[in-house]
Amino acid sequence: MPNRRFADGEVVMGRWPGSVLYYEVQVTSYDDVSHLYTVKYKDGTELALKESDIKSQSSFKHRKSQSSSSSPSRRSTSRSRSRSPGRPAKGRRRSSSQSREHKDDKKKIIQETNLALLVLICLFKPSENNTRRYNGEPESTEKNDTACMILEQKLKPDLDMERVLEQYSLHPRKEEKKKEEIYSEKKILEAIKTIEKASSKPKELEFGGRIGTFMLIFFLPATVFYLLLMCKQDDPSLLNFPPPLPVLESLWEARVFGVFLLWFFLQALFYLLPIGKVVEGLPLSNGRKLQYRINGFYAFILTAAAVGTLLYFQFELHYLYDHFMQFAVSAAVFSMGLSIYLYIRSLKAPEEELAPGGNSGYFIYDFFTGHELNPRIGSFDLKYFCELRPGLMGWVVINLAMLLAEMKIHNQSMPSLSMILVNSFQLLYVVDALWNEEAILTTMDITHDGFGFMLAFGDLVWVPFVYSLQAFYLVGHPTAISWPVAAAITILNCIGYYIFRSANSQKNNFRRNPADPKLAYLKFIPTATGKGLLVTGWWGFVRHPNYLGDIIMALAWSLPCGFNHILPYFYVIYFICLLVHREARDEHHCKQKYGLAWERYCQRVPYRIFPYIY
């Protein structure tokens, strides 16, 4: 095994990949297997370099001193020589040759600049091949580097012209040379803009691409209606498939749609109230930060007061239970109309306002994932509003309606213990989300995903009508549980909530102020972006501890329904699949964003969600 030449922490000169230029770097680690040094540049960039690409600072200083010491002697020698009448011609020949050498050097610098720019863009384009190159692994030749091909085509005419001039010693005049340099710089800038525009297109389509998203547009509503129809059956067993379908005319009622619209615009009115603080979101691609009013918890209090007023005047809230399927259809129709509006308005949105994952150029895919990142009507942010307001608060109101319907149908003076547990657990989850509303501004839904059918249907239909599945199930299939069992389920939910909330709080506090003395006990891996990856606390236990807490809570919500049927546990199965999918998206996103630092983090924290399992 060869000995290391440079130690960790040593400041050396590292060659920039694809060029002959050396910059001051600091050695951070050394891999004994690949024999590569991980170095950190002054701008925070971390790269893996071979030993041959690293030189000590003393060698550079020695060369510089030699050149500076030899120059005066040559100048003094030239001054000591006497000038004879025959020497001026020779002097002119020397000056012309020096001028040619100067131009040749200048030409070589321009060529090296163009080639270095080509190599740098190819090297640092976020792709799987780059990660393999930095780790000393063989590259895959199956994927074409679109950005490199574009730049090579842009620069090839200029490079070919320079080769011809070099071959035939054709040197343009100084003015023409200057024009060519300006023209070349313009072409390079134009090529970079073309590459940036091309790189903004997502290369890997999620959800099965165009075919998968087209099927999901029909599959998701069908799944919601299937679950609701099964809960209505006396025996909601999977063997009783398919459930009897209702008459199409019974699925739509104008009055129900009007009630849904009233609910939606009431929440919009609460959102516009000038109460609560105004905060800034994360920087967008153009550096701009959007402002958001944090008043979700106040809106929840106003909503509770409005519902309490209706109950005081003896409004029968179980009307929701009697027309539950019609409300689901109304919400689905409204979400489809909203999605169409969002896509049409996104066609006029500037390029920098489009979502990174919803700018594929394929209609169906962009319609599903969302073409525009933050669609707004004035200061009214449509995506941010739908994320927490109408669907999440509607979930609580639906649960309350199911509780009242259970009491009326079964002639009970008090709701069942199972129904109380389900309502209490899910109410805690919603109140927690609204109390910590500001934390949602750092999630992928806000920072990365566009607002299209996926989020519109998920926020307005899936959340209120699928997340309330346990309460809807208990109305038609009451389940009695003992107090000790209820206590055990409550403890399980508290454990899941504690993991979920403490992990999210730990992450959010660290993002806001990593230098907070209260967080001094946390250790992290620095990254080239300036952010740190926590390797202690909850985030040193598993990579996504908040997802672990979510799954534990989802299990606690389903256990009060008993074990007679698997239908109430659909939410647990769905939640696990959803979080595993999100975890895969997070892994891919973080690998592109943090590079080598993320690989080091994965080595320190090998388990993703479930410790010692996954």
What about the largest sheet? 5 strands, antiparallel
Domain count: 3
How much of the sequence lies in strands comes to 5-15%
* SS content category: alpha+beta
Describe the structure.
With 614 residues, the protein is of the alpha+beta class. It has 3 domains: 10-57, SH3 type barrels; 207-480, no CATH class; 481-613, no CATH class. It has helices at residues 57-80, 87-124, 128-134, 146-168, 174-199, 209-232, 254-272, 296-312, 319-322, 324-346, 363-369, 382-388, 390-409, 417-435, 444-447, 453-466, 469-476, 483-512, 545-558, 570-594, 596-604, and strands spanning 11-15, 22-31, 36-41, 46-49, 54-55, 277-280, 291-294, 376-377, 380-381, 524-526, 532-534. The longest helix has 38 residues, at 87-124. The radius of gyration is 33 Å and the shape is elongated. It is an enzyme of class 1 (oxidoreductase).
Structure, briefly:
InterPro entries: ERG24_DHCR-like, Lamin-B_rcpt_of_tudor, Sterol_reductase_CS, Tudor. This protein has 614 residues and is of the alpha+beta class.
Compile the SSE list and pairings:
Elements lengths: L10 E5 L6 E10 L4 E6 L4 E4 L4 E2 L1 H24 L6 H38 L3 H7 L11 H23 L5 H26 L9 H24 L21 H19 L4 E4 L10 E4 L1 H17 L6 H4 L1 H23 L16 H7 L6 E2 L2 E2 H7 L1 H20 L7 H19 L8 H4 L5 H14 L2 H8 L6 H30 L11 E3 L5 E3 L10 H14 L11 H25 L1 H9 L10
Antiparallel strand pairs: 1-2, 1-5, 2-3, 3-4, 6-7, 8-9, 10-11
Label this structure with key terms.
single chain; 614 residues; alpha+beta; SH3 type barrels; two-stranded antiparallel ribbon
